[in-house]
Records
---
Amino acid sequence: MLASQFGNEIEEIKISSDMPVIHVQKDRIPEVLLFLRDTPELQYNFLTTLCGMHYPETSRLGVVYHLHSFVNNHRIRIKTVLSIEHPFLPTITTIWPSANWMERETYDFYGIIFEGHPNLKRILNVDEMTDFPLRKEFPLEDQTREDKDDSMFGR
Amino acid sequence: MAQGQQTDYWKRDIISHEEPKEYNILNVGPTHPATHGVFQNVMLMDGEFIVSTEQTIGYIHRAFEKIAERRPFYQITPLTDRLNYCSAPLNNMGWHMTVEKLLGIETPKRVDYLRIIIMELARIADHLICNSVIGVDSGALTGFTYLFQDREYIYEIYEEICGSRLTTNMGRIGGFERNFSEKAWYKIHHFLKTYPKKLKEFESLLSRNRIFMDRTINVGPFSADRALAYGFTGPNLRACGIDYDVRVMNPYCSYDEFDFTIPIGQNGDTYDRFMVRQEEMWQSLSIIEQAIAKLEKMEDKETYFAKDPRFVLPPKEQVYNNMEALIWHFKIVMGETDIPAGEIYHSIEAANGELGFYLVSDGGRTPSRLHFRRPCFIYYQAYPEMVTGNMLSDAVLTMSSMNVIAGELDA
């Protein structure tokens, strides 16, 4: 199933769980995704979703793309990591316009800046917010409450 | 066609006008009877025609993805209810299947068939709303009032099975919380007997109605390759002519044993979306009948959950009487079970398209990351492209035919 016709040597391939996972360096993402979409044998023509990740142990952010080939009925997952101090990544809105809002959502939640995005504003949270809520250090609940005792349920 | 020539004539005026135009800004605001849900469109209008529109969403953002990182798997089901709240059981079942895929639980056939009955009922409920609301937005209120009685009946079926009507939190990881009662079966059979007549009546009101056809044909057309590029799935994509249905492409929950067709349209306009949803309701009815036939042929009428004691809660009578069941119950609820680390992406065919769950687990009690691939969020981006250059009344119909549900937009 794994197409071994990859011309780029800039990534590492791992097979895990339910679909092949490819780790790509962040600068080559648009190239790799375009290659995956346009090569006649692969034809991953549908961007299913893209989401952000936060890995606090290595203090890195990540982005995960899921592609789907309608022609071959094959799914693939593409991951990339960015450092927290320098979270820049090229955008893929030129390849798939559906990535527009998905990248905005990822910026809103994690602070990953997509270079070349036409309208990188916050989409789901208020525009004036300064934090990036889905990072692990952002608290879920109000830390100033004294009446809740979560020691039993380990929240 | 005569209508096409007329709109072209009107449009010519916008493009070739010499004097500088003065545009109006119209705020189709977050609370507006025409937008079904809370989302805002600020439209720049040239008289009756829309020049551009800017969308704002996020009015009902409830931070599900953040909350899900702090909740054990069985507590995330109520969150999934509130995604597409018109068809809550579909989201619930999708989530249960995702967790079962991660944990490696295999559900018995009876559970699969019961789930299919519920999922198709939910799909009928959602398409019922969307189609009657297209009627309402074009002025035909009668169809809405007739069909909503059947949606009430579907709510009563949900109530028999899980206790709640709208946000159902239905089922458990591995099956259901109780077997379907006699009353639930009676109601399902009664629904199958009475609904086809009502649906036919609704169809006769609108689908060959001259006024409705004039208002919906060639309104908001979208080509198939633009739809693919914008990530359309579900009835919106099928109306453009591409027959992508997750139930057929990546079958889950024994859907490959069922016989149904996928309706597709041609132009991707409002009329096609209406007709695709209409036909899908007929197909769902046929699937429910097939599932009931299969269930009646099975000798086993008692299983309603998978027998995997590590992750599936045992029935309450056993918990109170049996020591092992008590221990398993304690371990599952307090989170002492060994959840495998890994990542899973599972998607189902929800009423609006491919609803995907990307679950990353690090072996702990709660997910490390849960991302919902919400179809509404992704295809609503195409709305400006669909309405620019058209009239406001067409824009209202386009939005309601896309079935944009605010809960799914924002999560």
---
Amino acid sequence: MNPLIEVRGLHYRYEDGTVALNGVDFRLEPGESVALLGPNGSGKTTFALHLNGLLRGEGDIQVCGLAVEKQNLPAIRRKLGIVFQDSDSQLFMPTVVEDVAFGLLNLGMDSASALVKARAALETVGMTGAEGKAPYHLSAGEKKRVAIAGILAMEPEILVLDEPTTFLDPPGHRSLAELLAQLPQPKILITHDSRLAAALCNRAVFFDRGQVAGEGPVDMIVARFGWDLAWERSKLRF
Amino acid sequence: MRHAVLERWARGSSPFHRCDSRAKIVALLVFLIALATANRGLPLFACGLLVLLVAALLWARVPVWGALVRAGVVLPFSAVFAAVSWLAGDPARGASLSMKSYLSALAVLLVISTTPLPVLLRGLGAMGVPHFLLDVGQFLYRYFFVISEEAQCMNQAAAARGATVRQWTPGGQRFRASAGALAVLFARSYARAEDIHRAMLARGYRGRFLLLDAARFRRADVLFTAVASLAPLALRIAVERALP
């Protein structure tokens, strides 16, 4: 079976000369979800932004059989939805329902159908009733749900979630994890939370200094790179 | 959101709030034209308009005193020109200028405090205002709150390290510190603008904002437009006829 995503030899250097990605190879198989772990600045988000052509580096990227090239970008952006880390950057329309419908209208859908789909997506994420609200009136958890609804409305085949639990309190964190677990799409989850990664993903890929330093089952990668919050292993005592 | 009284008023509920934004814009334009071109019997006409506006504020359940005070924000500006007219020997013109500017501000305030800005922008778009201008307005409005909260956080961070607004520092250090904070705020805003643009592209943006269809213009909106537009005109005709 063909992989949903196949990346070979991806290199990317920022304008200031910083090497962000240095020969990344990656595959996402149908039906699997993968956690991207690694230190801040290791290239995880930069990598994700390449998957739908928001950044263009050197190397080959195929998403659902389509090469990430200019002529394929509209189709790829429909198939692969990215939920950004900061919801305030993603929710730019004046009201919640307009924001969720934004992508649908860009796909050429008429207003009435877009409205129906937007409402259905809001229902999926448990935000029915927030349609007319302004995004800045929402809590961090609600903003994240609306941002996810905006992506789900476009019915993507793959979800990329960039640190989805940032800014959330523990109940919001838990409730978002439950929501994500219910979504059937294969996911790429960028996170520092090893427990969330273990709950949602079959496999983890560890990034370090723009390279894949290791990959395998989540628990194994977490143990190998010491990527958990094991206080008992710390010298701190309370 | 701690700093948006008008936003809170605009999210209220009253028959005035429910009127179509296009109807309010048309009525506002008629009001402003009627006021701007009035000359004979202006004091009486202005009093009549003030009564009309106060009645509309009451109908819209907008705090009247708060609105009257906020409309006064234009007075310092018009007072300068009024003073120049007075010094030039034409005090009547100065008074007329102040009255007109205050009533115009109050009328605009009535519309924006009963219509959420996104709805107002949509109404303007439906009336042919260029989309580029409206998109800029929409982004300014949306991110004004985000950026102002970032500025507040920076201010609190500075205060937490002992900075005070009234603090005197030698050698213009406070000015340099403020300039540095502004530069950081600009850099953050720029970074956010890039993030927003990426988020837009990720959802298929191709250079034009597409919006859900606006609400239909109902009979009640037609009636409102007619009554709200005719009221200032009728008042002006009545005042001018009443004068010798």
